[in-house]
Please model this.
Amino acid sequence: MYRNKWLICLAIFGIISMCLTACEKEDNQANKAPEAAHRTQKHKYIMGEDGVPMVEIPAGSFQMGSNNGDPDEKPVHTVYLDTYYIDVYEVSNKLYKKFIDDTGHRKPKFWDDAKFNLPGYPVVGVTWEDAKAYAEWAGKRLPTEAEWEKAARGGLVREKYPWGYGINHDKANYQGTGSKDTWSYTAPIGSFEPNGYGLYHVAGNVWEWCSDWYSPTYYANSPRQNPKGPDSGKGRILRGGGWSSFPPDLRVSERFFSASAPEDKFGFRCAKDAPKAQEEQTQ
Model:
């Protein structure tokens, strides 16, 4: 009799455990559903004139900035952007060499530095003017700050980083090494997982030039639609953090600027307008 009661208790305990496990699994799936669903979406790609694949960022609104970050990241505000394309990868030394060979443009600082000049690594030591010249040569332009942030967020809302909340050296190349991050300086292009839009290294590796002038108070008066930054400022915007940065600099809302200095942590990627006909179809 006692044996039967024991078996019944075990059976009930097993059923309860299965239910709890199922509920926990369902909750986890529900919490991850928005991100997982976005990451399985098929995105449209085109090939840039310089041979870099570009991904389409569809027209629509997103929440820009952070109320928990630095003063210049406030307030969070709604921004609408038309459809555009942005490079999947940072511009590499290999591609920048083609630009130099074709145009006779000056070599960037650190071009002969063995720590930074391997072909498959991002070009560094470029000024804002250098990056702009390359983009024009490639039939593109530099992304606006708003375009960069929307693309870097990868479809996620109110998250700190392109992949979500936490950060470790499996996610990006930044100050120090460990886990997947084995590089003391820049990492080869494509070394870490892409974000929800398929972009690589939008956090860490190199800070990326944007087209905008910097103003610490711009967000308070930023246009709702397709903002392009103030008419002048203290320097040009850089986004994303670099190999020598600490985690707070890798946040998608973090803003940085420079008076076009050619530093070994500065690189870039390009953007491009979508054809007007396509934009009308999207709207």
